[in-house]
Amino acid sequence: MIIQRLTELVISRKNAGWLISQGAVEYGREHYIFIVLLHSLFFISMTAEFFIKDGEYNLNIINYLFLVFFIILQIARVSILVSLGRYWNTRIYRIHGSELIRTGLYRYFRHPNYIIVVCEIFTLPMIFDLYFTAVVFTILNAAMLSVRIRTENEALKI
């Protein structure tokens, strides 16, 4: 998962270069560091909680259900990247006058990527019975997303 996130940052940086070259304006720069911090602490918390529990957990049907759901989320995540193409980014950029993407999951949801992130932040720790991380970071992420979505809606004039 960490490798996936780092790969996404590389894609994001590449896409940002293209977006800026097309005249894109960035929004929400002031809160972006808090998103990075939240996601970094999420992985630290999962690791710490796992080792505090002596690195033991009992695999059961519930763990496998969370694992299957997490895999489905990853497929949905890839579909988001494909739908947005060069417009996908971890930051909020907008090329004024450009049309909003209305393909893939964006046909059905306004912010499908955030729905996926919410589910991931709860599901990944639950695979390993890391209840503290699942609950605390789901709440923290919800607070962060309230700022993020408001900022993105402003940028997209939704």
**Which bin fits the share of residues in helices?**
55-70%
User: Roughly how many Å apart are the termini?
Assistant: 32 Å
What is the alpha-carbon Rg in Å?
A: 17 Å
Compute the number of structural domains: 1
- Beta-strand share of residues: under 5%
**H/E element string?**
HEHHEHH
Strands in their spatial order, largest beta sheet = 1-2
How many individual helices?
A: 5
Mean pLDDT: 94
Please tell me what the overall shape is. elongated
Poorly predicted parts: none
Q: What is the number of E strands?
A: 2
Specify the biggest β-sheet.
2 strands, antiparallel
- Supply the helix-strand structural class: mainly alpha
Quickly list its features.
158 residues; mainly alpha; two-stranded antiparallel sheet; 70% helix; elongated
Briefly summarize what is shown.
The chain is mostly helical and 158 residues long. The chain is built from five helices and two strands; from the N terminus they run αβααβαα.
Describe the protein in words.
This protein has one domain (30-85, 98-156). The model has no long low-confidence stretch (mean pLDDT 94). Strands 1-2 form a two-stranded antiparallel ribbon. The protein has helices at 2-21, 29-52, 61-84, 112-127, 131-156; strands spanning 25-27, 92-94. It starts with a helix and ends with a helix. The chain is mostly helical. Helix 2 packs antiparallel against helix 5 and helix 3 packs antiparallel against helix 4 (112-127).
